[in-house]
Amino acid sequence: MSAAVLSADTSHQELDRLAELAEDVIRRARAAGASAAEVAASLDSGLNVNVRLGEVETVEHTRDRGFGLTVYFGQRKGTASTADLDPASVQATIEQACAIARYTEPDPAAGLADPSRMATQFPDLDLWHPWDIDTAEAIELGRRMEDAGRAHAGITNSDGAAVQAGRTLSVYANSHGFVGRERNTRHALSLSLIAGEGDGMQRDYWYDSVRAPGDFMSPQALGDKAAERTLARLGSRSLSTRQCPVLFVPELARGLIGHLVSAASGGALYRRASFLVDHAGKRVMPEWMNIVERPFLRRGMGSGAFDAEGVATADSALIEHGVLARYILGSYSARKLGLESTGNAGGIHNLVVEPGSDDFAALLRRMDTGLVVTEVMGQGVNTLTGDYSRGAAGFWVEHGRIAYPVEEITIAANLREMYAGIVAVGNDVDRRAQIITGSILIERMTVAGQ
């Protein structure tokens, strides 16, 4: 694919074609007997390049289509999809969705979102920044990152550098007459390095993810960061079993908040498979803590004017002075719970954990002696009970300073106690994902090693 092809911005025309197709399909589904219908259509395209030890490992150009139709015959629902947008495939998709709906059991919670909740304002959130990079330029960028990392003494090998440029065009339309268009770009750089030899070998990485390529950290800085992280792990040891404070760095603190999101989400709640069932309005975190959803952040990784059902998004507190202010609901889960949609069909939109005033060094001093966690492994999180137990690696801290790296340990507690025991949130905020947070210091967890 040439740079000229990559740079030709036909996004508005492509969105118009998707929207016209969506509206036509909805009309045809209604003509086939559906009482309501909705369409989600998307076009993803991109370039992915992987370089290792200066040599090209993979080059991939992607251009993927998705087209999904959901029809309702009263409260009977049918869904079908296709990646082929030729007329015969689209017609077959309509017929399949209608056939499925005719033979399913009625579901009292099924149906489109409330028409009064459809978005009417579509601000420019600055999400569209196509990256006009060709294959040769991407390969060279990967080599520059890798060369920067491998130049550090002690780095002995590389797991490779990756360069990704991507764009997504999407349309959601329904028989309320709503048609929502979105276009966004997301680009990424990453590098994974190896230090040491034999049993003492260590691996680590760094990455950057942005909407606009001009926002990337430099290749040199990314290579330096990946090397520094990898070299810092040399000489790792285990720990004896103990209880101590635990500090999660921002990219892992995001996961802690992600478990809260999962537990507060409608599917887990109406199945009564969450430790937060019946907790709306109750304190689950310290009184000073606030977490707010902010869908309209410019260049935000989760920004959007409407959710996956066309419902308008809005700034809204999830945790307010430590209290769980609401759940995270789309229309279906809201009906199952006898509540209203929170505009979260399809997920959250920029969940911002209010930071404190401490930087990372100040958090270490506040912790004094304890564990910094920089990596977790395994799936040991039970949303029903809140039990948390995962393999981990990081650094042992003594008197507010990092003493040595640690590995082959397990950290364990219950999420209820962990959330209630949050001591501080750092101002070292990571904005590379939909959950935006600094480091999180937990008062006490069990650390098990040798």
Please, could you describe this protein's structure?
The chain has ten helices and 17 strands. With 450 residues, the protein is an alpha+beta fold. The chain folds into two domains: 3-230, PmbA/TldD superfamily (PmbA/TldD fold), CATH 3.30.2290.10; 236-450, no CATH class. A six-stranded antiparallel sheet has the order 3-2-1-4-5-6. Strand 9 (316-320) and strand 10 (323-324) form a beta hairpin. The termini are far apart. Residues 1-7 have low confidence and may be disordered.
Topology as a string of helices (H) and strands (E): HHEEEHHEEEHEHHEEEHEHEEEHEEE
Number of strands: 17
Number of helices: 10
Question: Going by CATH, what is the homologous superfamily of the largest domain?
Answer: PmbA/TldD superfamily
Please write out the topology.
Elements: H1 3-7, H2 11-31, E1 36-52, E2 55-73, E3 76-82, H3 87-103, H4 135-150, E4 155-174, E5 179-195, E6 202-210, H5 219-232, E7 242-248, H6 250-263, H7 266-270, E8 291-293, E9 316-320, E10 323-324, H8 331-337, E11 351-353, H9 360-367, E12 370-377, E13 387-398, E14 401-414, H10 415-420, E15 422-425, E16 435-436, E17 440-448
Parallel strand pairs: 7-12, 11-16
Antiparallel strand pairs: 1-2, 1-4, 2-3, 4-5, 5-6, 7-17, 8-9, 8-11, 9-10, 12-13, 13-14, 14-17, 15-17
Helix pairs in contact: 4-5
Protein traits:
single chain; 450 residues; alpha+beta; PmbA/TldD fold; six-stranded antiparallel beta sheet; five-stranded mixed beta barrel; 10 helices; 17 strands; 25% helix; globular; metalloprotease; EC 3.4.24.-; Metalloprotease PmbA
